[in-house]
Amino acid sequence: MIKIPRVKSKDLLSVTDFSKEEIISIFELSKKLKDELKQGKINSYLKGKTLGMIFEKTSTRTRVSFEVAMFQLGGYALFLSRDDIQLGRGETVADTAKVLSRYLDGIMIRCYAHETAIELAQNSTIPVINGLTDMFHPCQALADFFTIYESNRNFKNVKLAFVGDGNNVAQSLMLTAAMLGVDFALACPKGYYPKKEVVEQAFSIASKSGSVITLTSDIALAIESATHLYTDVWVSMGQEKEASRRKKDFAKYKITKKILDKCSSDCKVMHCLPAHRGEEITDDVIDSPQSIVLDQAENRMHVQKAILCTLMK
Ligand code: CP
Ligand code: NVA
Q1: Active site residues
Q2: 166 in the same domain as 199
Q3: Are residues 56 and 115 in the same domain?
Q4: Quick check: CB of 233 below 6 Å from ligand 2?
């Protein structure tokens, strides 16, 4: 039987809810669960448990990977579109949390305001997992660092360079890098840097872990000696009205073959997906042999299984 790690936090709203040691044990469990699945072993670590999945925004990877993860662990996942439940007609988040806590064993929520996820967690007696808010995407960042960990077995000499918007994905990656002692550089246009409080939190964590965090508008500086190049869309869900301004402001901040060729030939290309091909990344980069975007997408499921087992067992 696999050993399930113990974590202090009831919920996963941001990667900082876990300690560095807890993250590493979740990675070890992810690896074991992934290996078991590849060997065709059936396990039922969450037999009889039900996860409710509330979605205010659309999703392919998060919805499917959580749902399949619960099925493969012997449990059940319930898709709850915000518009199909009373939350969409004005029932409070607190009442929703209290009621769902009487039926379910865990909740995954994808919503706009991060405060909604916090309020849900505060009013639930069961674990709440952030499946993306405007502020953070912790499951994505954990799966991404697991993808790096899986091939390197440690984080020595890793430098993750993110070119693009200082958005939810960038903020979670920056915090995770700081916790794991990984160097992180973000190149983005002025006005699109991560939120001040997240930057301060990352710098404070990095001062103890030793990771070097660089925020710049200079792409060449950010990608210098990068081992991993990462990008995400210029227009995140909920920012559709800003699309034309953002497309102008970000025009230079894309990963092209020319940018990739400035990095070492074993530098890996990462993207959380969905990609807007031709905008933040070109086809010849995302489809290149250096791209590990599909490994990232696959690992969402393995890492989320480890998170589900850890929080819901
Ligand atoms: N990366 C990610 O969260 O993808 P979805 O929006 O498809 O869930
Ligand atoms: N930053 C993107 C990530 C999608 C997975 C968004 O929030 O739309």
Answers
A1: 110, 137, 140, 232, 272, 300
A2: yes
A3: yes
A4: yes
